[in-house]
Give the backbone structure.
Amino acid sequence: MDIVIIGGVAAGMSAAARLRRLDGNAHITVIERSGNISFANCGLPYHVGGVIEQREALLLQSPQAIRARFDIDVFVGTEATAINREAHTVTVREVSTGATRELPYDKLVLAPGASPEHPPLPGIERALGLRNVEDVDAIVAAVPAARSAVVIGGGFIGVEMAENLVHRGLQVSLVEATAQVMAPLDPEMVAPVHAILRENGVDLRLGVAVTSIGEGEVTLADGSTLPGDLVIAAIGVKPESGLAKEAGLELNERGGIVVDETFHTSDPDVFAVGDAVVKRDALDGSATLVPLAQTANLQGRRVADVIAGRDVQDRPVLGTAIVGIFGLQVASTGWNEKRLVAAGRKHRIIHTHPAQHAGYYPGAQQMALKLLVDAETDEILGAQGVGPDGVDKRIDVIATAMTGGLAASDLAELELAYAPQFGSAKDPVNMLGFVAENLATGLSRNIQWHELAAAQEAGATLLDVRTPDEYEAGRIPGAVLLPVDELRDRIDELPEGELVVHCAVGIRAHIAAQILAAAGRPGVRNLDGGYKTWLAGTGQ
């Protein structure tokens, strides 16, 4: 059987290697337009910053090594230009010479990936993208002659590039047309990200678009200009689906290649995997585009299984992702609050601010976690985490729980590894489960930071149960101070009507709410995540 794979790197090479392991006789050919068949694309920004010093470390496999180990024909610097579905052939062109030829196939796998967005701005041709090794070579070559850089776009690649250009000593501006970087995060969770970018010298411009790119500057919609000897376009990516479209394969409205659960396109002999294909959202089954390396690698493996006759299907995606920004871990999985509100889905929200390991062990640092839960079924809908350490494993545990169908309250029951330097006896994930259980059973009620002002306007009394020193250092307007340790003896001082209690992060307020309930004041609401979450959300 002749199998042709268009595109290497994550999805394409995973498919090729798996196919060879499953079928020792198939004739497998991989076509890759760039000069490298297998490279660490997620490591590219870190070579720009000098964190990954050696360029060769990015190159995972050569065509020669792949042929020697797997007996796979690999052609780099070769572009597929047309698919003849009736004849079962692919036309390929050698980029350096322009020479063309036809390759026959019995099964064809499209793994073209996604390409950077380049909006039609004046001067956009001066902006460099970051997709492959050739792109990183161009950026590395341009850095020594530059003193300033403008990064357009505040997604994963944008913030990584901003950090690494700072490492190279450039004056860096980051421009994001929306109100925040890192769209998967909700506003109160992204506040530490904005802060750390600014603390490290990044000129962060939010809520303003680029209108033009000049010789040494970038002009914004508000009329201001930014110095930009080097300009990086990290606005987003789009499916590289032109070849599929010309071949008459079905695409969705965003240009993604439509596939079924076994990666078949609208042609039964043509498959597609990776960043270019439409995927199925794990929460509602809707079509989505998720350009993530882990998903691309798994789809490459699974399409090989399908071609080899194994009974497997694609899995839905949660969109689990993480990025490091100047030592801060930023991770998410599933849906955020913004998306749940837009979809009209009833949900509960839980904010916590635990340390990544036992507080008595040296080096404990606080993180922020947010869990989103279906208000009716207790299903976990998503999670976000931001902090210096320990965020990665908490988000991974939650993503695993979501995949396994665990409810939010079930997180309380997870048996997780514990030693003081790694976690706590009540792990942060367990704590999220405890709060979820309390809310689900009605033991606790909470209120969100963005709901507080309306509750106060409606007559609710806000009770601050922190210490006087904490209260003097910073307070929520209208809050009445009554420390939790004095509450039992001073309950009679509280006014009638609705009460909202808060502390720094929510733990003492939960105790206060239970004291009040025992004293005959039911229905007290805890300000979720406490003063710390309110402060991050309001920016005060």
About this structure: The CA atoms of residues 198 and 204 lie 7 Å apart. The mean pLDDT is 95. The longest strand covers residues 380-387.
